[in-house]
Structure formats: C-alpha cells, structure tokens
Amino acid sequence: MDKSQKWLDELSGQTIPRSIFKISYSCSSGKGGQKVNKTSSKATVSMAREDWDSAYWIPKPVMQQLQTKGFRYQTETGNVVIQSDSTRSRYQNTDLCFEKLADEIRATVYFPKETTEETVEKWNQIKEFAKTKRLEQKKRHGRKKADRKSTF
C-alpha cells in the first residue's frame, strides 16, 4: 500500500510512459481563422482496453480501484481516450493530455491514511459528549411532558 501511495504521489504527466499510447493529431476547433484550418494541433491520446487492463506501469492496488470505480476518460467499451485542444501547439496539447490522465488517476484513487491514537481518542470523546448531551435532552423533554400531565 505504501508503494502504491508513493507512486500516486510521484505521478505526473511526465512519468507516464508515452510509447504505449496511441497519439494522433487533428484539426482543432474554435477561433483562430486560417491557422486553425491549416494545422493539426488537437491531440488525442488513446489506449485499447486490453493494453489498459494489463498496464505494467500502474501498481495493482491502483489499477484495482480504477477498474472498480471507473474514471472520466474511460469509454463504455473500456478504452481510454483523452483529448486536448487548449493551446496552439500540438506538443503542449499532448503534454496536457498526459497531465489530465495523471490528475484523473490521482482524483479517482484513494488510500486511507492510518489514524493516530490521539485522533481516535478525540473522536471517542466527541461521541461520548454527543451521547450524554442527547440523553440529557431526552430526559429534559420527558420531564417537560410529565409536568404537563395533571392527575385527577
């Protein structure tokens, strides 16, 4: 678990191996006039389901969470597709695609940290205080109702 957490902390767009992804470029949309029509600056980074399921560079606990939870860039068929046309440079858009993937993995995967003894003690005190306060309130409410009753 510690290795997986460390891997997750060090994960960035630069640490993802790019050679295993299929990278393609196409015309970007939006403003820009002739520049947009002439250059292929929109980057699309994709990976087939079979390759994604057997990704050697992702630790097993991380991959298990990604498979059970699913994440934003995974299609219904299980392929992974990330696109970016934010900048006018195809290389910057490619970098942005890998950054998006790293950010999404970090946002999806969660490893609970160990709670300290003092944190556990603090929450136990809070629970006890809430319990006693609730019981006092119930007794007060019961006395109020009992005082309303009159005996004939």
From TrEMBL:
GO terms for cellular component: mitochondrial large ribosomal subunit. One of its GO terms (biological process) is mitochondrial translational termination. It comes from the Eukaryota. Pfam families: RF-1. Residues 15-148 form the Prokaryotic-type class I peptide chain release factors domain. GO terms for molecular function: peptidyl-tRNA hydrolase activity; translation release factor activity, codon nonspecific. Signal peptide: none annotated. Gene3D superfamilies: 3.30.160.20. This is Prokaryotic-type class I peptide chain release factors domain-containing protein. It comes from Babjeviella inositovora NRRL Y-12698.
